[in-house]
Every structure is written in structure tokens, then in C-alpha cells.
Amino acid sequence: MTKVMSFDALKSQAASLDIRRQAFINGVYVDAASGRTFDCVSPRDGKVLAKIAECDVEDVNRAVAAARAVFEKGSWSEAAPGKRKAILMKFADLMAQHASELALLESLDMGKPISMSSGDDIPLSISCMRWYAEAIDKVYDEISPRDPRAIGMITREPLGVIAAVVPWNFPLMMAMWKLGPALAMGNSVVLKPAEQSPLTALRIAELATEAGLPDGVLNVVPGFGPTAGKALGLHDDVDCVTFTGSGEVGKLFLQYAGQSNMKRVWLECGGKSPNIVLADCPDMDAAAAAAAGGIFYNQGEVCTAGSRLIVENSIKDEFIEKVIAQGKKMVPGDPLDPASQMGAIVDENQMNRVLGFIEKGHAEGAQLRTGGNRVRTETGGYFIEPTVFDGVGNDMTIAREEIFGPVLSVISVHDWQEAVKTANDTPYGLAAAVWTRDINKAHLAAKKLRAGLVWINCWDGGSITMPFGGYKQSGTGRDRSLHALDKYCEIKSTWIALGDA
After folding, report:
1. What are the residue numbers of the active site?
2. CA–CA gap between residue 406 and residue 331 (Å, rounded)
3. CB 92 within 8 A of CB 131
4. 479, pLDDT greater than 60
5. What is the H or E stretch that residue 493 is in?
6. Across the chain, which distance is largest between two alpha carbons, in Å?
7. For labelling, which of 78, 250, 317, 402 has a CA lying 20 to 30 Å from the CA of 226?
8. pLDDT digit string, tens, across residues 365-422
9. pTM (predicted TM-score)
10. Residue 434 β-bridge partners
């Protein structure tokens, strides 16, 4: 865990940060070809942190060309596993040396509490890179069962140029979930951070170069989705797009692949995750704390947020009071204050979107039990208090659409079968949880839930060793674990006929 300084010390350090503003292409920082920039605004106070290079088609072309050239050269793609491992381990070490700076950039840039960026995001990002570095020389090719007069080899080769397009809610961690396995397999990467949160991506690019990553292997092109993102999606020399973000944009990348070179597209597109609490819940206080954390952590800006709380009727009233009590402890505060448990919504547009969903909940007849307001307006920042709606029907907008904010919808059911049916009644299928002391219900519910992640008597359990991804419109493929490596390689079958000796 990164040591957190005092509030005053953090504010002082924030004022003196040297923020990287340019794109990073072929080992150097460069302005956008057009010379254009965009404002990077801090959600804690609405003030401009920096003017960032606004990359477009020409910049993407330069980055992809650099990535392709170094891939064909083979200085990374054909490097021995031990060499790649050593460089990525040094990269992780350098991130660890700069952990306090990275945590501060993350909190300033997207509004999360410094205690979370320093205690969760940055350490997990570093450990992810180390884990994939360690995996490089632990993954073996195969020999198939075969005729004795032949050899059947199954080998993995790097794909080529990977476009990694990452979201703003966990900027560095989501980048590491892509960069770790993609670089470990020997690929070159063009990383496009979300325009709302480009700062840590731009900073770690030079750390990767300092670690020994050859120029062109990692490029960072900040910019907007309809320009830089689209250019990557349509580029005929990009072999794969790996994307975390909204379903709307995920579908665009599928279209771009079809319109260009049929590149691989791996998607993680969020969810409307159900948290099922049954009458035989083994610990209602623990479940209530987990339910509150599951929706209010990171201001609800989490793809696996437990935004639908599905509760058995007989305990619903008692349980919701416990959740509300937990939520009231999570008061939004300055992201740089180590005492803050909630921070700011990432930008004004997202804040207004969340407030619009709250109004929609009112209009459709849900009962507002707590919250629902913008707070800390005097700061100029974008803060919304924890919000709980009761009496929600699963057909209401706030139960159907991903809000990506601190808004909980409580839905009551009669039994576990109805709970599972309600849980599955969604276009999404990323995560789900069940709280029960009945081992039979736990296993049966887990089997029936159409979700890539199922938690029993907890929320958000798992580790880098476990695959992360969803069913249905929550996406395709899996991040984390050894399974992620196969997304970034070609699997080749080579059959060798053996002649007479």
C-alpha cells in the first residue's frame, strides 16, 4: 500500500506536479500533428489541470506505424522470455517508485479518493504488471497426441499491434489489465486513455521506456473516441482492439472491425449487476456493508457496481435500513483528503447524466429513501451523495440502464427462484452475488445466474488469478488470469511428417 501524506501535504504536492501533456509516440513525447489540445479538468474543483495533446488520425497513423516497425524488427516480439520478463519487472518497480505521484495524478484526474488510488488502484496496477511479467516464462507450448510418425506442435505467437482503449473509472488499473498480457506475449501496443483521465497513462509511458522497453512498443495517444478511438478501430494495421467502456462504444468497435480488416475485438462493456440477499443471509450487517460498498465505492463508477439490490420480502425493510445507515457514513469529500470515503463524479457531463437518472427514478414512481442531490457545490466540483431508491420495478429505467453513479435500486422478491429470474432479466451479465447460508441455494443460484463473475456471501471477491469478464452485452473475452494471454496471441498448429531415418 502506498503511504498517504497529510491533506495539506497532498495539496502542496498537487500544486507542484509536473504533468505530461504530449502524446508518447516511438519513445518520445510529441505534440499532436494538428497542434490542437483539450482541457483536462479536475472533478474535485472544476479547474483545468493541463492542456493535453488532442490526437487524431495522423497521430494514430504515426503511432501504429511505430508499433508495427518495432514489431517487425523483433527487438521485443522475438526477445527471449527472460529478457521480456526482466524489463516488465523493472517497469513495475519504476511504477512502485513513483506510486505516490501516480496515485495523486489518478485522484486529481478522475476524482477518486486518494486513500483508494494509493491503497487500491496503484498497488493493484503494479502487482498486475509483475504478475504478467512472472507469467512470461511459465506458459508452455504443446505437443498434440499424434501418430508416431508425425509431430504436432501447438505454439503461441504474438498478434502484432494491439490498440488498447481504456475507461476513466480505473485509468491505470484497466490499462495494466490490457498492457500486462499484451506486452508479455510480445506485442506492440497503442494505448488510448479516456479523454477524462489521460494523466497516468502519459506518465507511465516514459517509465516503460526507462525500464528498457524498445521505442515504439508502447505508444500513448490521448484524444476523443470519435476521432482517435475510431481511427484505431478502423486501422488496417491494427490486429486487435481491446476495449473497456460502454456498450454503445463497444458496438462501434465491432462495426469498425467489420468495415476494416476484421481485427479481433475484445470487449468489457459494464453491467447492471444484481446483489441478491435472501432471508437466510448468514450476516445481515456484513451484507449491508458490502451492498453499500458495492454501489458507493468509487462513487458508483464501477463496471461491476451492485446497482440492483434484490432482497427477499421478509427481510427487505430491515435490510434496507442497514444499507441506508452504511451509505450515510460515506459522505463525499475532497479527493485529496485521506479521510474521504467518496470523491467526485468524473466530469460535469457524467454528473448531469447521473442526476438525470435520479429524476427518471422519481418520474417512474420509485421511492427515494436517501440522497439524490448534488453536494459540495461551493467547491466547483462534481459531487453526488449516496442515493437509494426503494420500490423499484425491474422494468424501470434505473433498473435497466447502467447509471455509473452512486444510485442503488432496491427490488423485492418472494424467494430465491424469483430473485435469480429477476437478476437474469437484463441485457448485461457481468457480475452477481448471492447471500445465503444454504449451500444448495448457493450452488444452484450460481449455476443459473448468467454472469461471468458470481460471488457467494461477499461482493467483489477475486484476484489477478481469476478471469474477469461477462456474458451477453457485458462483452467478450476475459481480462486477468492466464486466460487473458490467449487474447493477444495467434495459436499456430504445425504438423511435421517424419520420414524414414
Report:
1. 268, 303
2. 11
3. no
4. yes
5. strand 489-497
6. 85
7. 402
8. 999 999 999 999 999 999 999 999 999 999 999 999 999 999 999 999 999 999 999 9
9. 0.97
10. 276, 456
